[in-house]
Amino acid sequence: MALSGSLLNKSSSQERSDLVAFWSVPLLDGVHTVEFEHGGTTGKRVIRVDGKEISRRDWMFKLVGDEKFTLGKQGAKCELRVDPLPHFAFAYSLYVDGKPLEKFTEKQSQTTRSWAVVAEGKRYRVVFEKQTLNVWVNGQYVETENVFIEGGSEMTFEFEDLKGTIRATSTNRKQGVIHQLFVNGKLIEEDTIY
After folding, report:
1. Which pTM was predicted?
2. Left if phi > 0, otherwise alpha if psi is -120 to 50, otherwise beta: which for 89?
3. Which of 6, 43, 59, 73 is disulfide-compatible with 139, CB 3.0–4.6 A?
4. For position 154, what pLDDT does the model report?
């Protein structure tokens, strides 16, 4: 059985015997997990997003085909494809906004920067869209105040009782512009989930 997604072992799949694929999808509101169960003998198809079942079909005679659904607060259009392989095997692939997940993720890594922030016992995901200069915290757009500084610019914003600053500084031509997030003055390492 060939897979485009990642396999999970039985212990981490919560004993779901027909779990055949698992993907992590980075969006503005966070990284979402998509699980797919496919029963070759039962015709069952189950899709779970972030552990919650969003689609179930039992006793399907056609074992190949597509399943469409939306993902996240931005409503990203997803298509899970089940394709036949020789010897009664299947290939599973996930498309997001019309692109294979790998290409979608690659584009996301070029157009956005993201950081995982843990402060005061809470977890936040800060995402900066380079093309629009929009900032999102846990999927919610936040207003920013922009100022020029020596060698670049700063965008300041607040979320809960925290003060965030995204600093953009120019470097040599190879690296281009570097974006760094500071929360209450502390540098936060960039999230490398992409």
Report:
1. 0.76
2. beta
3. 73
4. 95
- Which residue, among 28, 107, 14, has the nearest Cα to 74 in the 3D structure? 28
Q: List Cα–Cα distances, 102 to 28, 54, 105, 162, in angstroms.
A: 17, 23, 5, 34
* 4-25 residues labelled b (16+ CB within 10 A) or e (exposed): bbeeeeeeebeeeeebbbbbeb
pLDDT tens for each residue of 70-80: 999 889 999 99
Residue 78 identity: C
Among 134, 141, 97, CA closest to 113: 134
Nearest residue to 67 (alpha-carbon basis) of 23, 26, 27: 23
Integer Cα distance of 134 and 143 in angstroms: 8
Q: 148: helix, coil or strand?
A: strand
Distance CA 80, CA 119 (A): 36
